[in-house]
Write a structure and sequence with these properties.
Distance between the termini: 35 Å
Bound molecules: NADP nicotinamide-adenine-dinucleotide phosphate
Shape: globular
Order of helices and strands: EHEEHEHEHEHEHH
Strand content: 5-15%
Structural class: alpha/beta
Largest sheet: 7 strands, parallel
Number of helices: 7
Helix content: 40-55%
């Protein structure tokens, strides 16, 4: 879909990749961007096209209110996410629950409530789920998080099939490490959120089902296409 003239909603828009996605959408000509955040006072953009929206994706009543307030959305970007659980052997059940509640069930709950809105969009609509290279193969240092992102990838595939014919495209964005709070303690090369956001929007405009939005993602995506086993081994060795 064309970003120009679209009405976008970005979850987790107050910082990190979500904030960069809001800026990139404005730069690419979106006519309105709902910047959804748990704490709207942290949405700082002064662009008149930005509409702050209170939304904790784990709260059903807030999702329902967001659907009422943003009934003209044509591009839903499910960016909100957490990485609470690390190694699967040592992560607490509470940490695993947090990752699955946010990355899987929160994302699905938002999509379910927004499907009727997206169905009404003249000219079709798009859902982008911000997943991770860890959706395609586990990064054992973040094994619990990887499992949640793999589940979210599977749900993305289900939705793509189920929404086919309703003129709603369902895309997966699969970034490598991004220079945000989420991985600030992991010493590894990272791409800036601004560059990842631009890469995501290029993929949206091309309608790519699997968007690899940064140089590491492109490289790892090529390996995944070549051999899922080699991909798994490469991730296991990081
Ligand atoms: N950083 C990476 O290396 C990396 C790599 C691949 C994919 N990703 C994915 O990119 C997305 C953005 O991550 P990030 O790197 O920008 O992380 P971040 O800087 O930690 O930001 C996470 C965002 O998600 C929001 N959020 C968390 N739980 C939420 C909930 N229940 N309801 C609404 N918002 C919630 C946070 O809001 P608060 O400010 O209120 O906490 C924050 O705005 C995530 O889906 C992440 O899994 C990140």
């Amino acid at each position: 879909m064309k970003i120009q003239g679209s009405v976008a909603l970005v979850t987790g828009a107050n910082r990190g990749l979500g904030k960069a996605l809001v800026s990139a959408l404005l730069e690419a000509g979106a006519s309105k961007v709902y910047a959804a955040a748990r704490d709207v006072s942290k949405v700082t953009s002064s662009d008149p096209r930005v509409v702050p929206l209170a939304l904790d994706t784990s709260k059903a009543e807030q999702i329902a209110a967001a659907v009422e307030a943003a009934a003209d959305v044509t591009l839903l970007v499910n960016n909100a996410g957490v990485a609470s659980s690390a190694n699967v052997l040592t992560a607490s059940q509470a940490a695993m629950d947090t990752d699955f509640r946010t990355n899987v069930f929160g994302t699905l709950a938002v999509i379910k409530r927004f499907v009727p809105v997206l169905e009404r969009a003249r000219g079709g609509a798009t859902i982008v789920n911000v997943l991770s290279l860890a959706s395609l193969g586990s990064f054992p240092a973040l094994g619990g998080y990887s499992a949640s992102k793999a589940a979210a990838y599977s749900i993305t595939q289900s939705l793509r099939a189920e929404l086919k014919g309703k003129r709603i495209e369902v895309l997966a964005a699969l970034p490598g490490p991004i220079d945000t709070d989420m991985v600030k303690d992991l010493p590894m090369p990272k791409t800036s959120p601004a560059d990842v956001a631009k890469g995501v929007l290029v993929g949206v405009e091309r309608g790519e089902e699997d968007i690899f939005p940064d140089p590491m993602a492109v490289q790892m995506g090529a390996l995944w296409n070549k051999s899922h086993k080699e991909y798994e081994r490469a991730f296991a060795s990081f």
